[in-house]
Every structure is written in C-alpha cells, then in structure tokens.
Amino acid sequence: MKKLVFQGLLTITLFFTILFVLNQIDWMRILKAEQVSQTVDKKLGELYWELFSESEEEIENISITSAIDSILTEICNSNYIDKNKIKLHILENNEINAFALPDGHIVIYSGLILASESEAEFCGVLCHEIAHIELNHVMKKLIKEVGLSTLLSMTTGSNGVEILNESAKLLSSNAYDRKLEREADAEAVNFLIKSKIDPESFATFLFRLKNNSKEGNIMELAWINTHPNIEERVNNIIKQRDSFAASNKPILSNETWMNIKVLLENDH
Amino acid sequence: MIITKSFVYEPGEHEAEKASNSYLMSLIALIAGLPLPIVNLFATLFFYIGNRKGSFFVRWHCTQALLSQLSMLIMNSFGFWWTISIIFTEETLSNRFIAYIITVFLFNLTEFIATIYTAINTRKGLHVEWWFYGNLTNLICKD
Fold this sequence. Notes:
The structure holds two protein chains of two kinds. By secondary structure, chain A is of the alpha+beta class. Helix content of chain A is about 70%, strand content about 5%.
C-alpha cells in the first residue's frame, strides 16, 4: 500500500513538475501566437473602420481634432498607455455614441461631444472606451459573439460582407456583458483619477442621459441604451471615486471646449 | 515504469488474446474518439464489463487498462474544455494553456507507447505491470 501511495504521489509530482517547467517558457513568443493575433487584430480594425468611414463622414476640422487629440494625449501620458496604438476618429452623427473597434480604433460621434456638458464628462466616456481596448474586451466580445473561425475567415476575405456588417452593428450598438462593462468602468475611473479628472462627472453624465432617456428628451441615446444598469454603474463609479482623493484639472481651457462644441454645432 | 512479471499461472492462448484486446480497445477508441476524451474510457469500460466474469488474467489486464484510462480522462477532459473555452468564449490563448497541453500530450504519448508495448507482450502471454497502475490493480483485482 505504501509503495502504491508513493508511486501515485510521485506521478502527480512529475506531472506538476513538467507543467511548472514548461510554464516558464514564453510559448506565445516562440510560436509567434501574439504576432498572429496582432495581425488579425490589425486586419479586423481596418475592415471595420473602412465600413464606418464609408457610411459616415469623418470630422477633419483641425481645431476639433487637435483639441480632442490633446485630451487623448494627456490621458495616455498620465496612464502610461502607448498613444500611437489608439486611433481616434470623430464622425458626424447626431447619435450620442462612442465605441471601440479592434486594433485600437475608437469612434466618437459628434452627438456625444455635443451632449457632454463639460470636458470631464466627455473624458469619462473616452476613458471607458480606452479601457475596453486596454483590457482586450473588443476581441473577447467578437470571439464570443462571432466566433474565432469566422473572424479569421473575415481577415482572409473569404467571408461575406453580411457578416462584417452584422458584427460591426454588434460593436457599435450592443453592450458588452455586465462583467466586462464593470471592469471597463473601474479601469476608466482609474484612468480619470490618474489624469486628474474627477470621475463624478462621468457618473453625472450617465445619470443625466438616463434621466433624459426616461423623459424622452433626447432621441438618439445609443450609448446609454446599449449600456444597461446605469444606476448600479453610477453607484459603483461614485463608490470607487470616493476611495481616492479625486481632483479636477481641465486639460483644455473652457474656451477651447466651448469652441469645439460651437464648431460641431455649425457643422451640423 | 513497466515491469514484466510472471503471473500466478500460465495464461492460455485465448486468455492472452482477450487481455491484449483490452489494451487495443482503448487504442482504437482513442483514434476513433478524438477529440472527445471520454470515448476511449467508455470503450474500455464496456470491454471490462463484458469480461468481468472472465479468467483472472483477462480481468486483471482489463482492470489495469480501465484504471489507466480513468486518470487520462481527468487530464484530457480538463484540456478539452479549456480548448473549447478558448475557441468559443472570451478565454484567450496563453503560455499556461500551451504548457498544459504539451504536458498532457507527453503523458498521453507515454501511455500510448506503454499501451502498444503491453498489448504486444500480453498477446504473447506475458504479464506486464505498469508503474502505479499495476499495484493499484493488484489491490482491486483478486483471484
């Protein structure tokens, strides 16, 4: 019996020792798995962005893009995020919406900037979308909803336009699951605090849009409609914010922020 | 790892064939049942049930084959469902997963070679006892 127990334990030990040793090797690098995944990510990003840029007009007014770029640069610098991997696009659309696409593309609709009463409110949504990218939520969502094989076939062009359109709709008008949204909110609050932006504005923005949607004041509330459980999320943001000494130091001057809104209004 | 011992009696030609088949059963089912790890266990289990009233030599080898399949089932099932979760859920490919799959592959390969070796030798009427499983079978399977 003793011999049996000894042999059993030795077999289990052997298994875990081999596992431990093999675990020390960076297989992802050796097998170039990350490189392949980055190529797929890049190709999908291009495909989706092409689709959106064809159907909507991108705002190229330098006063608007450079101001928004300053906000993005400040948030990235404060959080040690490689700014070059984020490709921010502002599209002319009345919808209050923003969403992340593969390969670091973030699409912001002009309606969202116009609906933000302050720069801090806009930063809240922007940080939320950056968080989705940083936490690799975009690919996770696509793999879950569309499937890895379909995504891979899309990159080789062997899959129809229909799937591309459907999955693009999924990214722009469907929320992530509850867990991923909670993670993105928590990460967004961290980004905001490190960027010296008070997360309370993010919570206020969510709350205001929710109330407006209840009263039917604003018709194009895509972002809020696709992000349910607003009360719970607002409470979580405030709770997390209260555990830090939040400060508020605007990135742009109030004049610049108001100027962006005027320019966007005029563009409409 | 594998020891050829003398059995309590000299098995006959028919017994040696049946005992050898218990190992072949798991091999054939392993090939047919890929990637579902439970198929080979079921095949060995049915063969065991069919021979539970057979001679001691046959029963002994059916039990050893079945026990070895059980531990492989746990290992392979974990790997199987981990792979499924990577393909269909938000789980991603990682160093840990690749390390686990290689470990499981090494254990499967060892078991595969041992099974072939045992099947050949048992067919010759030789009694082959595996590391750990041999002792475990001695404990369970009584004359």
